[in-house]
Amino acid sequence: MKIPISVLVLIHNLNRDVLLIERADRPDFWQSVTGSLDSPDESLEVAAIREVAEETGIDVHALPKGALQNLHHQVEYEIYPKWRHRYPPGVVKNTEHCFKVELPARVPVTLAAKEHVDFRWEPISVASSLCFSPSNQEAISKLKIK
């Protein structure tokens, strides 16, 4: 069963392009990297690093120090009914914690085929409008890039 605590990781480059990935189980559902904690004692940072590697093949440890940043923003949202079976009985809300990974430029992406089928790099304004999740849309629209 999934833990109702997750991370949302916005991956972007200095050209203001944001990486979006398309869900395998929902065509045209574009999103940033997301995922729940694997265990109650997994830290949010470790979960963010793990999810980025699992979903994109990007190794945060190989990036310059400080590339991963905790945005210290969290939202609680209602879990879509179609996905509630993944959680313990009675769990209807999830708390999502936002991070970003800053890359100097676009990098190769290796998708987790069971989870995602495509990726694209888009400017912030376009990326935000493509996301199906309101919390993902909001996080991208508030993204600050040097």
Characterize this entry briefly.
The protein is α+β, with helices and mostly antiparallel strands and 146 residues long. The protein has helices at residues 44-56, 124-130, 134-141, and strands at residues 5-13, 17-23, 30-31, 33-36, 68-78, 93-103, 116-123.
Describe the structure.
The chain has 146 residues and is of the alpha+beta class. A hairpin with a 6-residue loop joins strand 2 and strand 3. The protein contains 3 helices and 7 strands, in the order E-E-E-E-H-E-E-E-H-H. The strands form 2 sheets. A 4-stranded mixed beta sheet has the order 4-1-6-5, with helices on both faces. It has a 3-stranded antiparallel beta sheet with strand order 3-2-7.
Spell out the blueprint of helices and strands.
Layout: E1 5-13, E2 17-23, E3 30-31, E4 33-36, H1 44-56, E5 68-78, E6 93-103, E7 116-123, H2 124-130, H3 134-141
Parallel strand pairs: 1-6
Antiparallel strand pairs: 1-4, 2-3, 2-7, 5-6
Helix pairs in contact: 2-3
What keyword list fits this structure?
single chain; 146 residues; alpha+beta; globular
The number of helical elements comes to 3
Strands side by side in the biggest sheet:
4-1-6-5
Taking the sheet with the most strands, its summary is:
4 strands, mixed
Helix fraction, binned, reads: 10-25%
Q: Tell me the span between the first and last alpha carbons.
A: 39 Å
Gyration radius, rounded: 14 Å
Report the strand count: 7
Strand content: 35-45%
What's the shape?
globular
What multimeric state do the chains show? single chain
Low-confidence stretches: none
Reading the helices and strands in chain order gives: EEEEHEEEHH
Mean pLDDT: 95
Based on helices, strands and strand pairing, what is the structural class? alpha+beta
